[in-house]
Specification:
By secondary structure, the protein is of the alpha+beta class. The protein has helices spanning 34-40, 44-47, 62-73, 120-156, 160-167; strands spanning 19-23, 29-32, 78-85, 91-102, 108-116.
Length: 168
């Protein structure tokens, strides 16, 4: 499936919208609620079994997904702001909470994500921050972007979780 060309059109969630999806341990979509399917612009059959990364917007720094995958593979939840790409090239921002579902023997069964509309404060802070991280990524790779994120957090005197939760 060819990747859509991003446009400047933004779709905005309502305050009471909750996007829910579930993926397997490789990131393939197992379930998406009606809001998820509708806002993405894909049909359910186009989404199920596909990697969740089909929604990855090129404005997203890779270091955010590196952090996300490190956390969930270590059976930890994470909150993150994500800009997703729709089938028609439009985009939407979410505040995502990704958690792990474990089997009876304690191994990871799947990942569950609940996403909602980001706060206006977050939307003042996150897009310019992600632009800085992307610029660092272009010149210094994902590690450079990740190091810049850690430096920014240190300067603010907060860890990643506190930073994200305080602006949502």
């Amino acid at each position: 499936m060819p990747r859509p060309t991003p446009t400047n059109h933004e779709k905005v969630l309502n305050h009471d919208d909750f996007i829910v999806s579930k993926t397997d341990t490789k990131g393939k979509i197992l379930y998406g609620n009606k809001i998820f399917i509708k806002i993405s612009g894909y049909s359910e059959s186009e989404l199920l079994g596909k990697p969740h990364s089909i929604l990855r917007h090129p404005d997203m720094p890779k270091c955010i997904f590196k952090l996300l995958w490190e956390r969930i593979q270590n059976k930890q939840e994470i909150f993150a702001f994500v800009k997703n790409l729709c089938k028609d090239g439009s985009h939407y921002w979410v505040s995502a909470n990704v958690t792990v579902t474990l089997n009876q023997n304690g191994t990871v069964r799947d990942y569950h994500s609940v996403r909602r509309k980001p706060s206006s404060e977050a939307m003042e802070i996150i897009p310019p921050l992600y632009k800085r991280l992307l610029d660092a990524e272009k010149s210094s790779g994902m590690q450079g972007s990740y190091e810049l994120l850690q430096k920014i957090l240190k300067e603010k005197g907060v860890d990643y979780d506190s930073f994200v939760l305080n602006i949502q």
